[in-house]
């Protein structure tokens, strides 16, 4: 906390465990998100993304550990703090009988800080039919309306659960630009879960990979891309089945050729491979989706070997 | 006549981090003479908005370019292509080429002495830590 009583971190999760019956859906999660950061939460279906988000919002109570949001324990968030958060769930709860403008008027009445001009600007930008009832709107339009409702009070923290899943590419681009605008002056913090890695690569500076309830990686996306590389090795003679390279995530050896994905490639490692196997080594850059797949494949392969 | 501001293109889903793509493009524009010493480069905000990317990413690219002496901060004008250091020492590529034979010598000697690449790197790192501050 600084002198103004403002927490330095927008989100501070420590040792968080959430069980459904006896199964730990979140298994000792640590996650710190400083203010002004745009962070993506990436994971397969069932990895615990939505559960983590619900714990952050105080919609679910953690069994162990703590979740602090904007300086307040998530489970104890009062209306005053909640008014500083914007949230878009996977499926927005809207009243089908209200029109678009009635919905905005209704929701905005809960927020003292609602910015009318900004709300109207967003409605215009998203091309939402003001006079139409919400019920018959398309899934995409409902999603857009939910976003307007989450952004209209200019939240300090924006939490989005698969926000773009039902948007077309044009709307997705608009949406991402709006997210960046929210975070643009360095004050707004955005956490969004997604499985569309290209969106994440564009707007998020950081990523947290969630796998079976655990955070397996949390850092800058750039750092991840700099760290994880794929080596294409072509040796003079047949290679051993296991090259024993440090940080190997996945390897595929076929005769004199091998593909090895390594976490923590440096010049020394590459030089070592060249020397040991009298090999040509080409280093492939991997994008976030490829890294994500390699991480999951690699672990699956390791499990299979152990069996 | 001033030239129109350079256009950057990034591929967020490339395996090359976006900040590296920007660094490469600025270096190419400088090397190719499309950006001349003293020319301003677009601000972090402008580039981020135009490309729809996180401003922190652009900021990181500009900072690295500044650290490498390609760009420098000019009061009131923002980032400009470096004038001073370029004239003295040549472009980054030239300066790298200059130091290369010295590094080669040290590496060869180190290998002859039976040091592993990692051990050699550690020696370089220590030297850097002592001298670069």
CATH class of the largest domain in chain A: Alpha Beta
Q: Give a count of the beta strands of chain B, DSSP E runs of length 2 or more.
A: 2
Strand order, sheet with most strands of chain A: 6-7-8-3-9-10
Helix count, DSSP H or I runs of 4 or more residues of chain B: 6
**Going by CATH, what is the homologous superfamily of the largest domain in chain A?**
P-loop containing nucleotide triphosphate hydrolases
Which whole number gives the mean pLDDT of chain B?
A: 83
CATH class of the largest domain in chain B: Mainly Alpha
- How many domain units of chain B? 2
Can you give a write-up of this model?
The complex is a heterodimer of chains A (307) and B (133). Chain A has 307 residues and is an alpha/beta fold. Chain A has 2 domains: 9-212, Rossmann fold (3-Layer(aba) Sandwich); 225-306, no CATH class. Helices cover 34% and strands 30% of the residues of chain A. Chain A is built from 10 helices and 14 strands. Chain A is elongated. Chain B is mainly α. Chain B has 2 domains: 18-89, Arc Repressor Mutant, subunit A, CATH 1.10.10.10; 92-131. The longest helix of chain B is centred in the last third of the chain and has 21 residues, at 92-112.
Overview in brief:
Chain A is α/β, with parallel strands linked by helices.
Protein traits:
heterodimer; A: 307 residues; alpha/beta; Rossmann fold; six-stranded mixed β-sheet; four-stranded antiparallel β-sheet; 10 helices; 14 strands; 34% helix; elongated; disordered N terminus; disordered C terminus; B: 133 residues; mainly alpha; Arc Repressor Mutant, subunit A; two-stranded antiparallel sheet; 6 helices; 2 strands; 6% strand
Helix/strand layout:
The complex is a heterodimer of chains A (307) and B (133).
Chain A: E1 9-20, E2 23-34, E3 38-43, H1 49-56, E4 64-69, E5 72-73, H2 79-82, E6 85-88, H3 100-108, H4 116-125, H5 139-151, E7 157-161, H6 169-184, E8 189-194, H7 197-203, E9 206-211, E10 214-220, H8 221-227, E11 228-234, E12 248-254, E13 257-263, H9 267-277, E14 280-285, H10 288-306
Parallel strand pairs in A: 3-8, 3-9, 6-7, 7-8
Antiparallel strand pairs in A: 1-2, 1-4, 4-5, 9-10, 11-13, 11-14, 12-13
Chain B: H1 18-31, H2 44-51, H3 55-67, E1 71-74, E2 78-81, H4 84-89, H5 92-112, H6 117-131
Antiparallel strand pairs in B: 1-2
